[in-house]
């Protein structure tokens, strides 16, 4: 198993990373999906005791990816925030400090279903309904588009391995004809089990490493 995996999508070289990211080499663009920043704070406001500091830790993971790949653009494939942040939310401080660390990085996002909660907020993010880059259509929901290879998020794909009575379930990159779905980047997100669809290829994220699985 490796931290990174060289792949080809739609005739272009890309790199999968075990930090649940995809790097488009020919476009100097780093992709992640479903960061759901602020989810822990939202649950705590609802009286649910979840650990604090998760969004700050996720931003540190993003910084490591940016420092490793040195992309010109970072694009989040929807659901940047989990809810509408409050004005005094600690995450805003972390987010401002994070952006100050990467002044030359262009931060963009396609609009996800959770991002409706941040309408009207002034944020240093360029928002798009979708983005076309080379042969790729970048969007939130993984629906096929004629003439494009779709790269999306939204469903938080996961897969379970079973052997000798034991079961192991983990996030996956899910590739099928014309569509690639990234695992959710946010640490406080759940997962949806991908179907046993013929021709699908899965790469599992396990303990900071990538495990390619046999084609379904």
TrEMBL record:
What are the Calcineurin-like phosphoesterase domain coordinates in residue numbering? 30-116
Leader peptide range in chain numbering: none
Q: Which domain of life is it from?
A: Bacteria
* Gene Ontology MF annotations: hydrolase activity
Q: What is this protein called?
A: Putative phosphoesterase
Which source organism? Halopseudomonas xinjiangensis
- Taxonomic classification: Bacteria, Pseudomonadati, Pseudomonadota, Gammaproteobacteria, Pseudomonadales
């Amino acid at each position: 198993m490796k931290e990174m995996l060289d792949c080809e999508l739609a005739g272009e070289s890309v790199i999968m990373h075990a930090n649940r990211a995809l790097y488009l080499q020919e476009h100097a663009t780093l992709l992640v999906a479903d960061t759901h920043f602020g989810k822990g704070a939202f649950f705590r406001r609802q009286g649910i005791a979840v650990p604090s500091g998760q969004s700050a830790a996720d931003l540190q993971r993003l910084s490591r990816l940016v420092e490793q790949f040195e992309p010109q653009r970072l694009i989040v494939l929807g659901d940047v925030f989990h809810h509408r942040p409050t004005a005094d939310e600690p995450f805003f401080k972390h987010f401002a400090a994070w952006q100050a660390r990467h002044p030359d990085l262009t931060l963009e996002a396609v609009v996800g279903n959770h991002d409706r909660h941040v309408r009207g907020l002034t944020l240093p993010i360029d928002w798009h309904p979708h983005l076309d880059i080379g042969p790729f259509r970048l969007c939130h929901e993984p629906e096929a588009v004629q003439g494009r290879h779709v790269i999306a998020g939204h469903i938080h794909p996961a897969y379970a391995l079973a052997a000798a009575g034991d079961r192991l379930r983990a996030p996956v990159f899910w590739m099928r004809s014309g569509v690639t779905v990234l695992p959710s980047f946010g640490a406080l997100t759940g997962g949806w089990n991908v179907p046993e669809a013929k021709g699908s290829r899965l790469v599992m994220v396990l303990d900071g490493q990538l495990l390619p699985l046999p084609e379904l």
